[in-house]
Amino acid sequence: MGRANAFGADETMREARSFATFLVAAMTLTACGSEFISDDTLYTDDMDFSIDGESRILDTVESREVLDVLAKYRAAIVKKDFGTLNRIVSQDYYDNAATTDTTRDDYGREGLSETFELMAQHAESIQYKVMVKSLEVERGLAHVDYEYSYAYQYRVGDEVAWDSGTDVNRVQFKQIEGEWKIIAGL
């Protein structure tokens, strides 16, 4: 009878260990959280950069890296930090200004630099809010659709004025030498 009890005890211990292993694995998997990025998990210190609560952005390293670049862009615009802007925009940047029927308003990196220069000379105060609606990453390319609102105070001569508005945009990214760079959409 002692052998039967010992055998039963061994069997019970094996079952307990199996159950404990299963329980730990299940807790680990469920503790990982959502497979999607939520607004309350990123950029809690930047009230002007948010993720739409209804968006379904996969929580991947690539998604977070792309969002980081977009957040840096937003902050750099507000601070007029042209060093950061130049670092996060690709040398191959090209944009058609959302018009496909003409190339007259297309511009590359040089045209973007001229826009930054005008901003530096005339914009005295910039407010810029971004709400990310969607993000797609595939094979080293990404695009982010976002809604933005802006207000800026500018000076031309002795005149000081404000301009403001709200719009939607798609900005495109490419991974270049391990870093995500903006290649279109500004």
Describe the protein's architecture and organization.
- This protein has 186 residues and is of the alpha+beta class.
- It folds into 2 domains: 1-32; 39-184, Nuclear Transport Factor 2, Chain: A (Roll), CATH 3.10.450.50.
- It is built from 4 helices and 7 strands.
- The strands form 2 sheets. The protein has a 5-stranded mixed sheet with strand order 1-4-5-6-7. A two-stranded antiparallel ribbon has the order 2-3.
- The protein starts with a helix and ends with a strand.
- The relative contact order is 0.14.
- The model is unreliable at 22-32 (pLDDT under 50).
Q: Please state the structural category.
A: alpha+beta
Query: What is the rounded Rg?
Result: 25 Å
Low-confidence stretches are 22-32
Q: What is the C-level CATH assignment of the largest domain?
A: Alpha Beta
Number of domains: 2
In CATH, the architecture of the largest domain is Roll
